[in-house]
Amino acid sequence: RFCACVGADPERAVLSKQVHEAGVRLCTAADAGKGLTARRDYTADALITAERELPLVVFSADCGILLLHDPATGAVGACHAGWRGCAAGIVEKTVRAMTDAFGARPADLRCAIGPCIGPCCFETDGDVPDAMRAALGAEAEPFLVPNGPKWQVDLAGLNRQWLLRAGLAPEHIDRCGLCTACRPDWFWSHRKMGAARGAQIALIARAPEKEAP
Fold first, then answer.
1. What tens digit of pLDDT does each residue of 9-59 get?
2. Order of strands, edge to edge, in the sheet holding 14-15?
3. Fewest CB atoms within 10 Å of the CB: 22, 113, 126, 175?
4. 3-state SS, one letter per residue, for the chain
5. Is the pTM for the entire model greater than 0.90?
6. Which of 48, 86, 52 is nearest to 68 (CA)?
């Protein structure tokens, strides 16, 4: 139903096998349908491709989801970046993989950051801030706010910081800004609902080649 709404072919969709790590998979036509109509023989929290009409799919129920497009080469990417993936640098690794595989220039890339748990609801112990500081150093500090013995963490802000670090222009990054935990009427939230929930889906695909007149 979702693919029908956005005009994508579900038989060609490639679904990520998310393990909260920093693996990036270069998808080809041979991956069409994997995770849905064919066996998925990989794990990856980010998918990239330059194939036309090969929908890349990631899921979230509080984690960050990012969709990337290079208007110069046509390449696209879909990234699942929860706090562990964020700390492991998956966002920067996805940008680098698109550069290496397709010759994309980071300054040309466009990125949409979808809804995720916001700093209003993402309360953590010190392990999350420690991981972010280890990865980003002082760049992480604006997104970590102490709250007594706990911390409020801005996951979308941290993912955006990785994009800037990777070379994207600020004006090419669109951040949704909605908190999945605040809006159970709109979104699924693992923190609010536990296992009794569904998941958000995000999809991006390179458009078909225009038919000749």
1. 999 999 999 999 999 999 999 999 999 999 999 999 999 999 999 999 999
2. 14-15, 56-60, 200-204
3. 126
4. CHHHHHCCCHHHCEECECCCCCCEEECCHHHCCECCCECCCCCECEEEECCECCCEEEEECCCEEEEEECCCCCCEEEEEECHHHHHCCHHHHHHHHHHHHHCCCHHHCEEEECCECCCCCCEECCHHHHHHHHHHHHHHHHHEEEECCEEEECHHHHHHHHHHHHCCCHHHEEECCCECCCCCCCCCCHHHHCCCCCCEEEEECECCCCCCC
5. yes
6. 48
